Amino acid sequence: MSPSDEQYIFKKFKELCTSLPEGEPTFPDMPDVIYTTNLGKTIGIEITECYYNEFLKASSEFTFKFNKEVINNIEEDFEYPFILDIELNHENPIKLKFRNSIIKDLRKICVKEFSKLNPRESKKLENIGEIESFGQVKELLLSSGYRHLPESILSITMTRVDGIEKSFHLETTAGVVPSFNDEILNKIIKSKEKRLLKYKKCDENWLLICEGIDFYNYFSDIDLKDKIVSDFNKISLYRQLHSQVVQLK
User: Fold this and answer.
1) What is the mean predicted confidence (pLDDT) over 202-207?
2) Domain presence at residue 229
3) What are the strands, taking DSSP E only, across 128-200?
4) In a designed cystine with 51, which of 25, 114, 189, 217 is the match (CB 3.0 to 4.6 A)?
């Protein structure tokens, strides 16, 4: 997680967390945030992500980074925020020397195809390669969402979402989504407690767990049964898609 991501997550946490008193943050490294209240109390806040499948996370990193790069290149062309999912063809991976030219091609395609979406409207384009048909057959293919896309791209889906702060990537991979359970929480706590002794000393230490928006780190529900035992004074779960902070401890 980059420092800018951590600052954005903390900003949203501060907006949603009713138990956080008034104060000002700084962003060192260990912990990620030192929050000084108006009364002079210091709260060290460690920010971490949660995910349920490390293999899926690793295999999705390239797709996520590529989608984010495309978003950074096209969002100024749109008057509204959006969710973008570019599905990559892993059997024909993007070569580094063609990466920039593919992004330029995708920018032209996205502006042409998605710039007039209505609120909440979603549109998907699927790669059919060269469209050699003519007349009604070609029109039928085009109306069904088939396009000639770069060969490393399987599909492009954009959804207009008015009201969100910034555009983002959301993978549409299907599957059974698990609940956020004791096993996942305890694994996070155990990992982060090892760093507590290295933190700058604060009056309290909090752990902020960020649930993501991708299929490998989004949870269907919260299913905690055991009493939480931790050296962290407070533990919170920030659910991005729900715009919600859940106080776990």
Assistant:
1) 96
2) yes
3) 146-147, 153-160, 168-169, 180-181
4) 217
Domain boundary among 120, 138, 169: 169
- Regarding whether 143 and 65 lie in a shared domain, the answer is yes
Rounded CA separation 160/139 (Å):
25
The pLDDT of residue 176: 59
Phi, psi (5° rounding) for residue 194?
Answer: -65, -25
Domain holding 130, by residue range, is 55-169
Same domain, residue pair 81 and 118? yes
The amino acid at 21? P
Residue-wise pLDDT for 113-163, tens only, equals 999 999 999 999 999 977 666 678 778 888 899 999 999 999 999 999 998
Q: Say if CB 95 and CB 62 are below 8 A apart.
A: no
Regarding whether 165 and 127 lie in a shared domain, the answer is yes
Q: What's the pLDDT at 32? A: 95
* One domain for residues 69 and 131: yes
Q: If you write DSSP's letter for every residue of 9-24 in order, what string do you get?
A: HHHHHHHH-TTSPSEE
Count Cα neighbours of 108 within 13 Å in the Cβ-side half-sphere: 8
Helix, strand, or coil (residue 97): helix
- On average, the pLDDT of the chain sits at 88
**What is the per-residue pLDDT for 170?**
79
Domain count along the chain: 2
Residues 89 and 116 grouped into a single domain: yes
Instruction: Note whether 31 and 126 are same-domain residues.
Output: no
CA distance 81 to 224: 34
